[in-house]
Design brief:
With 271 residues, this protein is an alpha/beta fold. It has a single domain, classed as Purple Acid Phosphatase, chain A, domain 2 (4-Layer Sandwich), CATH 3.60.21.
Length: 271
């Protein structure tokens, strides 16, 4: 609407290895200017060598222009992450880890225009590690306990395998949170939309990193593994790169649970 400030929040799909980190270092500053973004959130659980998030990789993402890092099932897979992640307030681990797990699952952050937003990181349970607590009930508790400003938009990264679980979550919290974006599969889905009550939704953001591997890993390694069923060490692919993300648009006069637009971004870059 004319005369009102607009928030443009960029949510970047799983950043994979050095390829993804370098892509953001090279391209994210320009993308931030292009879309006049006021906040950038990226899932970084695969940023260190394709599995996990260590301090060095996290610092590279922040230096590139990422404001908040969400994670998933690989958050603790790098040596030292269990000590580092809980000390860095800009990194979230899934909220629905069992009680007592170090770190935090949500946080309040300010956009460059000064608006407060909440980012929540959750983990699915279908076709993946089922030892997590229920993400639906964990989100209900956040909404019940949150005592921040009533106009605070809530953005949710649901890191999960099953499309049905993520879609059901979107409908369960439609009109109660500003956005639900899925991560983990590394394959961008073609279903970005505003749900009936105004929540922005996409089942999976995709990934940022190697474009021609198998979800970021060298293709020949994964193909051979399917043939032989023998475990092998994954290596991050090289070659062309891609950036998958969603751009969320919201005016300062919009309801905190209703965004104006969600637009997916899928760009390919030469090495």
């Amino acid at each position: 609407m004319a005369g009102t400030a607009t928030e443009r929040i960029l949510f970047i799909g799983d950043v994979v290895g050095r390829s993804g980190r370098r892509l953001l270092k090279e391209r994210l500053p320009g993308i931030r200017r292009e879309f006049a973004t006021t906040l950038v959130v990226a899932n970084g659980e695969n940023a260190s060598g394709g599995v996990g998030i260590g301090e060095k990789s996290a610092r590279e993402l922040f230096a590139a222009g990422v404001d908040v890092i969400t994670t998933g099932n690989h958050v603790w897979d790098v040596r030292g992450s269990l000590e580092y992640v809980p000390t860095e307030p800009r990194i979230l681990r899934p909220l629905n880890y069992p009680p007592g797990t170090p770190g935090r699952g949500y946080g309040l952050f300010n956009t460059s225009s000064g608006r407060e937003v909440m980012v929540v990181n959750l983990h699915g349970r279908v076709f993946i590690n089922t030892n997590f607590d229920c993400p639906f009930r964990a989100m209900e508790r956040v909404l019940q306990d949150f005592e921040g400003a009533p106009g605070t938009p809530i953005l949710v990264d649901l890191h999960g395998e099953a499309t049905s679980e993520k879609i059901a979550f979107g409908h369960a919290f439609d009109g109660r949170v500003a956005a639900v974006v899925g991560t983990h599969t590394h394959v961008q889905t073609n279903d970005a939309r505003l749900l009936p009550r105004g929540t922005a939704y996409v089942t999976d953001l995709g990934m940022t990193g190697p474009a021609d591997g198998v979800i970021g890993v060298k293709a020949d390694i994964v193909v051979e593994r399917f043939y032989s069923q023998i475990p092998s060490r994954f290596k991050v692919a090289s070659g062309p790169r891609m950036l998958n993300a969603a751009l969320l648009t919201m005016g300062d006069d919009d309801d905190a649970c209703s965004l104006r637009e969600i637009e997916v971004i899928n760009r390919r870059y030469d090495p």
